[in-house]
Amino acid sequence: MNKQGSVMIYAIMVGILVILLALYLAPSVSQFTQTAMNSTDGDTYGLDCDNSSISNYDKATCVVVDLNLFYFIGALILIGGGFFITKIIFS
Question: What's the CA gap between 58 and 47, in Å, rounded?
Fold first, then answer.
């Protein structure tokens, strides 16, 4: 096997690893998001996003925290897919 073929296999393995890492971290990031958006309970501080009388700043923070899962996991999947695409196009 020449060097270009072994580099392609390596890039595919790294791409699969990044995508699997994204899928593995999804439940943890989702749990973090839910904890942050819930109301304060004991030692756990939350944003209380279900409350309609919170300030506009807190509402904006709730939206950003809610999008956290999508952006984090989406970015990892795009990076993993980037390894595939670059090796297919530039090989």
Answer: 7
Total residues found in the chain within this entry: 91
Distance of CA 32 to the CA centre of its chain: 12
**Measured CA angle at 66 (ends 20, 42), to 5 deg:** 105
Burial class (CB in 10 A: 0-12, 13-18, 19+), 48: middle
Interior CA angle at 21 toward 11 and 84, to 5°?
25
Asked if 37 contacts 47 with a C-beta cutoff of 8 angstroms, the reply is yes
Longest CA–CA separation in the chain, Å: 65
Query: What pLDDT is stored for residue 57 in this prediction?
Result: 93
- pTM of full prediction above 0.85: no
